[in-house]
From TrEMBL:
This is Derlin. It comes from the Eukaryota. It is found in: Endoplasmic reticulum membrane. The chain crosses the membrane at residues 20-45, 57-78, 98-131, 143-162, 168-186. It is a multi-pass membrane protein. The lineage of its organism: Eukaryota, Fungi, Fungi incertae sedis, Mucoromycota, Mortierellomycotina. One of its GO terms (biological process) is response to stress. May be involved in the degradation of misfolded endoplasmic reticulum (ER) luminal proteins. GO terms for cellular component: endoplasmic reticulum membrane. Keywords: Endoplasmic reticulum, Membrane, Transmembrane, Transmembrane helix. Belongs to the derlin family.
């Protein structure tokens, strides 16, 4: 019975978020148990170009160390991934998948110039950044009850990582934010100024992940939900608008 309930809970997670979580858990556990070597998973352009190890373009986004920070990262991916896929991208998992793919491509390019070999934090911060844009007025509680609007959440995480790492710039997190901001600008801000959508979701993704009807969601002519980036003003920890963060832990 418990096994069936656990499986049902797993299947209830939206497909894109579920896939990200599954890949992260499997690719993080595999090296720890000697199934795969970390050397096969990090981003290495010579291996990609000269040895055609194309998997290295994907695996760096899903590998984490087995420590307490991994649990927090999985929690963030689970929480904000589900919220994006079921609200901002309600009924449009294909568009959410395209957001993940687009930001991953941009992060890979940025990672090349910054010599980044692991990009899991880039993926995490991209998800958090878009969530923050979609819920800009929501109140988030951080660490010892410090509260601020969600729009500042990614930058608070950057500052926190910078402090606890003793002034090491978290370039992987910055790259993730930059990639998500580029997506947000090209897919929402620029079209809102009268320009075309420059990065439409590939048709193939719509075939793999057909649009679903969602109660209360209306679709605009460009395929987006009409309230895609509507500000959520439900704030405060008492109203479900924030999270209580214990003593705080470094993100990866």
């Amino acid at each position: 019975m418990a096994e069936n309930e656990l499986l049902a809970a797993y299947r209830s997670i939206p497909i894109v978020t579920r896939s990200i979580l599954t890949a992260t858990i499997l690719l993080s556990l595999a090296p720890a148990f000697g199934i795969l070597s970390y050397q096969l998973l990090f981003l290495s352009w010579p291996h990609v170009i000269y040895r055609f190890q194309l998997h290295r373009l994907l695996t760096p986004f899903f590998v984490k160390g087995l420590d307490f920070n991994m649990l927090f990262d999985l929690y963030f991916l689970y929480t904000y991934g589900i919220q994006l896929e079921t609200t901002t991208f309600a009924g449009r998992s294909a568009d959410f998948a395209w957001f993940i793919l687009f930001t991953s491509i941009i992060s890979t390019i940025g990672g090349h110039f910054l010599n980044l070999v692991m990009l899991s934090q880039s993926l995490l911060l991209a998800v958090i950044y878009l969530w923050a844009q979609s819920n800009s007025e929501r109140i988030v509680s951080f660490m010892f009850g410090f509260q601020f609007k969600a729009i500042y959440f990614p930058w608070v995480l950057i500052a926190y990582s910078f402090v606890i790492s003793r002034a090491v710039v978290p370039w992987d997190m910055i790259v993730g934010i930059a990639s998500a901001h580029l997506y947000y600008f090209l897919n929402h801000v620029y079209p809102g100024m009268g320009g075309p959508r420059l990065i439409p979701t590939p048709t193939l993704l719509y075939k793999l992940l057909p649009r679903q009807e969602v109660a209360g969601a209306t679709f605009a002519s460009n395929g987006e939900t009409a309230n895609m980036y509507r500000v959520n003003t439900a704030g405060g920890s008492g109203s479900g608008g924030g999270h209580q963060w214990g003593r705080g832990h470094r993100l990866g």
